[in-house]
Description:
- This protein is of the alpha/beta class.
- It has a five-stranded parallel beta sheet with strand order 4-3-2-1-5, with helices on both faces.
- The protein is globular and about 35 Å long.
- The chain has one domain: DsrEFH-like (Hypothetical Protein Ychn, Chain: A, 3-Layer(aba) Sandwich).
- Helix 2 (58-67) links the parallel strand 2 and strand 3 (71-74).
- The chain contains four helices and five strands; from the N terminus they run βαβαβαβαβ.
Amino acid sequence: MKTLTLVLTDGPYISEYAEMAYKIASAALKSYNVSIFLYMDALHIPKIGQNPALFANAGKLFTELAERGVRIRACPRCGSARGYVSNGMQDYPGEIKITSLYDLQEMISCSDKVIPLTR
């Protein structure tokens, strides 16, 4: 099966990229293995406990993707700068991991298609 990788850099409510990534990944799961790498403010996307009033809950959308088999990884330096690494990953669902920037390189090199969603 082919592989698609999405790379996000924006936070969940600064643009529509999180929702776009959800829709792209959901549709692609029919014929692709899907990976998502979160960089910079995109690390806020899967945070547990979000309660947006006017938008879809990005944390729940990405948790659903992970439960459906999407591999979601995040940059550790970005996570550390935003307070996610030092708290023992309590803010992320279990399927979504802050791992290594090398995961991005591996995801891109193993992908048939890469879609960056960034400004």
